[in-house]
Amino acid sequence: MEQYVIEMEHITKEFGSFKANDDITLKLKKGEIHALLGENGAGKSTLMSVLFGLYQPEQGTIRMNGKPVTINNPNDANALGIGMVHQHFKLVHNFTVLESIVLGHESVKHRFLKMDEARKKVVELSERYKFKIDPDALISDITVGMQQRVEILKMLYCDNDVLIFDEPTAVLTPQEIDELMKVMKQLVSEGKSILFITHKLAEIKAVADRCTVLRKGRCIGTIDVAGASKEEMSEMMVGRKVDFVVEKKEMKPLGTALSVRDMTIRSKRTGKNVVDHVSFEVKKGEIVCIAGIDGNGQSELVYGITGLMGIDEGQVFLNGKDITKESIRRKCLDGVAHIPEDRHKHGMVLDYTLKENLILQNYYTPQFDKHGFLRFDEIDKYAEKLIERYDIRSAHGAESIARGMSGGNQQKAVIARELDRNPEIVIAVQPVRGLDVGAIEYIHRQIIAQRDAGKAVLLVSFELDEVMNVSDRILVMYEGKIVADVKPEDVTIQELGLYMAGTGKGDAAC
Amino acid sequence: MNIIYFLIQQTMFFSIPLLIVALGGMFSERSGVINIALEGIMVMGAFISIGFINVFQDRLSGQGLFLLAFLVAAVAGALFSLLHAFASVNLKADQTISGTALNMFAPAFALFMARMVQGKSQVPFTDTFHIEKVPVLGDIPVIGPMFFQNCYLSTYIGILIFIAASVLISRTRFGLRLRACGEHPQAADSVGINVYKIRYAGVLISGVLAGVGGLIFVIPTSTNFNASVAGYGFLALAVLIFGQWRTKGILGAAFFFGILKTLASAYSGIPVIKDLPIPNEIYKMLPYVVTLIVLAFSSGKSKAPKAEGIPYDKGSR
């Protein structure tokens, strides 16, 4: 008889008529790393929210160590020793590490906070797992990898035994991912049990013992990771065979499309150069990928090129024309297409309908505007065309409110709008963030189609798989500088990781 | 020398209410609720408590009555601020609008009630609270005349409140949780803190302190209450912002404005200044003009709580 810490049986959770979880059974053994694999919208988060007490299931039972339990809120989960590292960290930026860890579990003496014991325990834990963390550092001053360690310490501080990691590797460098894997293995060797939510198969192969696959709210099955190949797992996840390597013809670069010369952007806050004398070119028919860890100046670089942020020094040329000081609309008309990093902030107006979002860039052209009045018939026609061509799915077609659409379809809408303008250069920042395998495949194919049609593409990505698969040339950014200019076939993921961490070989820097 | 003593005593009368009200605002805003209703709450606290003094001054007098009035002002402010808490926390209303509503309601209510009850809008009171000289302490050379002569009990209570507020926000469990709710309520919620409760508490504390602030602003500077605290609630907001939502900053800012205000009202009593060829109006404008200038320069690098003004909704991420 196997010993299970958590048994979730026949869990069904409905939102209206939509079944987010349909009769799902998940059993977590003591001392194992159990991966939960599925595309976005497969129901992983819902299932974990049920376990963490955020949702109440319509049907099903949860047992802990064989005894049935009810979990009505996160406090109940905590009391049972279930802890979670959320995908978006729950940390207060101006708290110290120590304050962040004790928040909610403070010990007090005579009504005053008592930090000494907490500090001792945190330092001990930090040493045990080689976290090298300074308890007095401010959250906003430490790296994302360190912040994740703070989240892990929060769980360990409360002596949790069941640890849920929600997509923990999305924000980490390859080296940090390796470290995290080591920590996870050490944790299970000490008797903790881990649920590991992800859609990255390589990581499952690396650490997980067993893996439960969800698709469209249903449980497809639980498998032993050792006996399954990546291909089998991805087929279970997507329901069909998936190409891991993106099909790509040989590139035939033509003349220079975009040229950035000596661009410098200073931070208003610290006065440091967040973009530090960066120069590079993107040729027509070429995909140039800017790799690097989030926060090394990539966003600002793109803001500088697209005009969302002023630049302090340097110039930007498009097809030989100086567009440095042009307005954003002028740049769009010149052929700059921008698929922004934050599609909610810069990509669309969430409370507009889909069709309104699709004409945000050209509502003022004669096609849609007659004497200052919008031509709704033309807008409808155009929207229908894009929806069909780019396969944008939503509940009410062109009339859907953008906020209610899934992330993948919002992104498709942005891409449809930007690419349909027939741009000279496509600047895409993290275009597949948070999307599932099917949507990723689709978007990558669109990007490559642009390049094959002789357009220039500048892609900013934090995901090395994407960088390696899609790009023709890779620039690595570290602390505002471009520290490497390499071709994907000449470099390994590990080498890229070193460049990204600022420890690359000097001979390749430019 | 006497002029300096006088100026310091006057500065206390102006600074202490600003300090207390701004500290109140700090608790509300660092829990995540913008409180521009400070002005309205001050009016309400002052109106009810001075009404209380007006009614009971025949039977009671002196510091006992003053302390009771404190309690009344605190309770009135707290109850009135509950409206703001209910609107901003439960109804998830726009906090600026809710605050504005309270600001408009309070003076109207005070005027209406005063006229209904006594036929005229001013509520008079007899000032039996003034302390000529504190025994023993008032006889200390230099310090005595500066801080322990011609003063009110409220000065010392205000300083106690400052110390208590500093300790509460930085050294207690409640303070830590309150700060978390103002910066990142989802983080607080994820560790089992009830964001709604904390925000209610924050707004209530601001109500108590603003109510008391209303009373102790009116007592030393007037002999009746006329449904107004002369924009002091808004000045306290400026103090809060200038003080960067931190206790020490607020202390400094409150005294900075207090000194300006003293200059504005007592310029004619200071020989050097009186002889300068500057029109009176300049001095009277000083506190308000400086407020504008200071805010224009200091709001750029603001350390405002990140989540203030955003109603917390458990469901949204």
UniProtKB/TrEMBL annotation, chain B:
<keyword id="KW-1003">Cell membrane</keyword>
<dbReference type="Pfam" id="PF02653">
    <property type="entry name" value="BPD_transp_2"/>
</dbReference>
<feature type="transmembrane region" description="Helical">
    <location>
        <begin position="6"/>
        <end position="26"/>
    </location>
</feature>
<keyword id="KW-0812">Transmembrane</keyword>
<dbReference type="InterPro" id="IPR001851">
    <property type="entry name" value="ABC_transp_permease"/>
</dbReference>
<feature type="transmembrane region" description="Helical">
    <location>
        <begin position="282"/>
        <end position="300"/>
    </location>
</feature>
<feature type="transmembrane region" description="Helical">
    <location>
        <begin position="200"/>
        <end position="219"/>
    </location>
</feature>
<feature type="transmembrane region" description="Helical">
    <location>
        <begin position="147"/>
        <end position="169"/>
    </location>
</feature>
<feature type="transmembrane region" description="Helical">
    <location>
        <begin position="33"/>
        <end position="53"/>
    </location>
</feature>
<feature type="transmembrane region" description="Helical">
    <location>
        <begin position="99"/>
        <end position="117"/>
    </location>
</feature>
<feature type="transmembrane region" description="Helical">
    <location>
        <begin position="225"/>
        <end position="243"/>
    </location>
</feature>
<keyword id="KW-1133">Transmembrane helix</keyword>
<feature type="transmembrane region" description="Helical">
    <location>
        <begin position="65"/>
        <end position="87"/>
    </location>
</feature>
<feature type="transmembrane region" description="Helical">
    <location>
        <begin position="250"/>
        <end position="270"/>
    </location>
</feature>
<protein>
    <submittedName>
        <fullName>ABC transporter permease</fullName>
    </submittedName>
</protein>
<keyword id="KW-0472">Membrane</keyword>
